[in-house]
Amino acid sequence: MRRWLPWLVAVLLAALNLRPAIASVPPIVDTLRASLGLSASAAGVLTSVPVVCMGVFAPVAAWAAARWGTGRTMALALALLTVATAVRPVSGVPLLYLATVLAGVGVAVGGALMPALVRARFPTRVGPVTGLYTTALIAGALVAAGLTEPLRAALGSWRAALAVWAVPALVALVAWLLVRPGVRSAAPVAPPARDGAWSPWRDRGAWAATVYMGGQSLLYYAPLAWLAARYTELGWTAGEAGGLLALFSATQLVSALLAPALSRRDARPAVAVAMVLTMGCLLLIGVAPLAAPLLWAALLGLGLGANFALALTVVGQIAPTSADTPRASSMAFFVGYLLAALGPLAVGVLHDATGGFGVPYVALAVFGVLTLAAGLVAGSSTRQR
User: Fold this and answer.
1) How far is CA 191 from CA 63, 68, 161, 182, 323, in A?
2) Could you say which of 2.160.10.10, 3.40.366.10, 1.20.1250.20, 3.40.50.970 is the CATH number of the domain covering 200-380?
């Protein structure tokens, strides 16, 4: 067996478990609310808190990696995620929210470490491996969203349906420990930036990568929140609109896998194609939503799936060395996900102001121009091998 294969398996298993803690709640949120007596806004926090944590706690990854090494830190993140996922539905509301925050911390640290781990362990295969783990991230979310309600029905309890997602997280933790992260990947990375040391906060390329990461995330989370509503407002049933959202999510798997592999030498052409496709579909959903809705949703998913994988690839290659990559990814995730959180809110505000979704989707398409520019600058600044 090739020496890199166990590491690849461990990385993919870890990636598969970085979204179920978020995606498993929405399918059973009504049952959960009824059981605990929560309001809609209080239940919504269970989904939004991990996303906010992905930004707020991303800098912890760089600090922890500098102290303990990337391998040990990933193991700690998976251990925290496993325990938090297992205990969050066990007792009352306080533990549910506390464990959700802890799970969000595990997701944030694990996600921020992924670009550094890929660059360190697969220096000549950064693009393809990034495509694989991005696909695993998306697949983990799809599986959790699709299976949680059937699990609730089979197990007879929403608590058991949420807790069961600790099992694959435990499998990922065991796999990670078996590749012995303390031997090679856990050597401490460079200490936090000092005077004269490289810092992403002072680097033009790192800022471009951060804006690209945040911009494409905003363009993803906004349709994720409002694509179904766009079509129910036009007379579609909830089931039809939900199917459109599923199509939008499914096509991301294809482009997330292929885009990095097709841009190994220069990411800029792929960034340009993915962003133009994304902007075009957003514009068409805004001005001609009923012309070909299935095509618009499928192509939008292809564009955004490619953008996500390309953004992670760029972030993983923007630092001068693999030792600096945790700092670059921490900044990109910290600023990027906080920017992305504004997307659903901005669309909602524009909808209330204009009385429809036409203007919000056109505004998203225009925002794509800034994201495209940032992606092209970032692509020209990467240290590809």
Assistant:
1) 8, 11, 41, 18, 9
2) 1.20.1250.20
